[in-house]
UniProtKB/TrEMBL annotation:
It comes from Actinoallomurus vinaceus. Pfam families: SnoaL_4. Residues 6-123 form the SnoaL-like domain. This is SnoaL-like domain-containing protein. InterPro entries: NTF2-like_dom_sf (IPR032710), SnoaL-like (IPR037401).
């Protein structure tokens, strides 16, 4: 099945919604972005892989004031896979309360479920050096 323009719009909005929910502290709504059994890989930041939407919400709460005040996502590129899944690659910018910022890449696998499109796997990669070094 071909990915429609509407699918692309909905998936792009889904990826953007993550930042809005986190920044507003609405972590109980992460099921609007992720599947219940999401695998959220933050090992590049020295953390364990999070399994399940509740674990993602709990991790956000545990970070407390160490969370960014702004999660910004940009440069979203979607690639349809043969099995109907979508690979989404995007850039993230985190802004902290003290003015520091950081850049990262999200590598997502997006699937269509009964509730609509959801992220079932996310790998978060820190950007620490220019030119992919």
């Amino acid at each position: 099945m071909a990915l429609t323009c509407e699918d692309r719009f909905v998936i792009t909005e889904l990826i953007a919604m993550h930042g809005h929910l986190c920044d507003s502290g609405e972590l109980d709504r992460l099921d609007e972005v992720f599947t219940a059994d999401v695998v959220y890989d933050v090992t590049d930041f020295g953390q364990d892989v999070l399994r399940g939407v509740a674990a993602c919400a709990d991790a956000g709460r545990a970070l407390g004031d160490r969370n960014p005040v702004g999660h910004h996502v940009t440069n979203i590129v979607l690639s349809e896979q043969a099995d109907g899944r979508v690979h989404a690659r995007s850039k993230g910018i985190g802004i902290y309360a003290d003015g520091r910022s950081g850049s990262l890449t999200y590598e997502d696998t997006v699937v269509r479920v009964d509730q609509g499109w959801r992220i079932t796997h996310r790998k978060v990669l820190a950007r620490r050096a220019p030119l992919g070094k």
